[in-house]
């Protein structure tokens, strides 16, 4: 395990590119960075823009798009890329520049190389490493949360691990050995730092960034009261079940991805994440066979990563499964429940109601009203939970394990 003192600050003028991937603690650190821009600038670090991260500018520069399907995919207007490049160009040559966007993990060699050429250099890449046995359930629930229909957890996880083995571009960001090797080819092995994201050591990523950027210790530590929405905490199984049912019903009624994000993403999901689930509420976890297969991949990556010549912070033995299970404490289930607790349904209704009052877009308002009817809590509801109207198993299954 690499000691924090071994990390030297990057040379002035370096662009630190935090490429994710998703579910490796990036959201929490982005909230800290965006809230402390002026403090970072006082220490010679530029965190460009005014938003949470650099999604718009980097998407414009790389051609990344988002949407439920290619037919409705949208991208960032070119002006966002131009604005980001202007801000980078205007920065002092003595400053260190920090760019963060998780979807950079999906870039292939050519696009990654072109991006590094456009943002100038030198470039140093930071990669978060979370073991698949823990990452796959989180990635799956992120797909459900965004309104996609990935299929049952273990089926999707099996397809993802098949994709890793065959080099599928769909699962490129989950192939950690390939991800690190790809960026090492682009910027050089010595310009790549990997951080193992162990729940028992949440300080590892902030400390790595502080060391690389030459910042005082503790400046990037998230506050203890950051909250579930800002930390993007894992959802409980009941919360995922509710979102799966809602997504299926709304998509079947013709909801667009943009309206879904406005109403469900910024309303219902935000309300659910604001909850403080008890330790006894079940989370999603891989079944025994899928977990064992994921552990085998983790062990292989841990054994081969050191041979790439990149910098590694954190415990690779833990990543490989030698010292813990690699998942958060608490009960785990591989299948979604058929009912949700009353407080989960209430949170969803409140989120939908807030969206209906807040949004100005007519389509989104109609969607919010539909959502209120879809998850409305009946006057008589048992504390044990209420049945989900659309059928959770069917809602999660959707179009199958490869659906994004």
Q: How would you characterize the overall build of this protein?
A:
The protein is globular and about 55 Å long. It is built from 17 helices and twelve strands. The model is unreliable at 1-5, 377-387 and 389-397 (pLDDT under 50). It starts with 14 loop residues before the first strand and ends in a 7-residue tail after the last helix. The protein folds into two domains: 11-225 and 286-319, 3-Layer(aba) Sandwich (Rossmann fold), CATH 3.40.50; 237-276 and 338-395, no CATH class. By secondary structure, it is of the alpha/beta class. The protein has a six-stranded parallel sheet with strand order 2-5-1-6-7-9, with helices on both faces. A two-stranded antiparallel sheet has the order 3-4.
Distance between the termini: 36 Å
What is the number of helical segments per DSSP (H or I, 4+ residues)?
17
The CATH C-level name of the largest domain is Alpha Beta
Mean pLDDT: 85
Largest sheet: 6 strands, parallel
**Gyration radius, rounded:** 21 Å
| Helicity level | 40-55%
Poorly predicted regions: 1-5, 377-387, 389-397
Helix and strand composition category: alpha/beta
User: Which sequence of strands runs across the widest sheet?
Assistant: 2-5-1-6-7-9
Instruction: Compute the number of structural domains.
Output: 2
The SSE string, one letter per element, is EHHEHEEHEHEHHHEHHHHEHEHEEHHEH
What's the quick description here?
By secondary structure, this protein is an alpha/beta fold. Helices cover 48% and strands 9% of the residues.
